[in-house]
């Protein structure tokens, strides 16, 4: 996969934030581990190997089990790509309650509704997997 390295950068920035925040104590230290439920990346322009770029992570919101991020790749102040991720925490073969994790991590907001556009983007993921398993 030619552009798989950009998925690595998307993971790296999320892990950096996790390890630098109180969320680390509320999750990994309690035996939970982060799982990537799904991710999409949309390219406007190619991100060429060895070219420097900036990546910005924007929290888009959360629901019972998932937190959603937008990651914007820019070069020379121009958007080259946008990645959208759906991330949760797993423990004992079960996705964990994201609202409780956020509350225990010091997040003051009790709710941050995810836009319909982002929910729709991930809506058919499970159906795609099920139809491929045959």
How are the SSEs ordered, and which strands pair?
Layout lengths: L3 H17 L2 H4 L6 E11 L10 E9 L4 E9 L2 E14 L2 E2 L2 H7 L11 H7 L2 H8 L2
Antiparallel strand pairs: 1-4, 2-3, 3-4, 4-5
Account of the 3D structure:
- With 134 residues, this protein is α+β, with helices and mostly antiparallel strands.
- Helices cover 32% and strands 34% of the residues.
- The two termini are 24 Å apart.
- The protein has five helices and five strands.
- It has a single domain, classed as Thiol Ester Dehydrase, Chain A (Roll).
- 17% of the residues are buried.
- Strands 1, 2, 3, 4 and 5 form a five-stranded antiparallel sheet that branches.
- Strand 3 and strand 4 form a beta hairpin.
- The radius of gyration is 16 Å and the shape is globular.
- Roughly how many Å is the radius of gyration? 16 Å
The percent range for strand residues is 25-35%
Superfamily (CATH H level) name: Hotdog Thioesterase
Q: Which sequence of SSEs, written as H and E, runs from N to C? A: HHEEEEEHHH
What share of residues is helical? 25-40%
- Overall pLDDT confidence: 85
Identify the overall geometry: globular
CATH class: Alpha Beta
Tally of domains: 1
Structural classification:
alpha+beta
Distance between the termini: 24 Å
List the defining traits of the structure above.
134 residues; alpha+beta; Thiol Ester Dehydrase, Chain A; five-stranded antiparallel β-sheet; disordered N terminus; Acyl-CoA thioesterase FadM; THEM6_lcsJ_thioesterase; HotDog_dom_sf
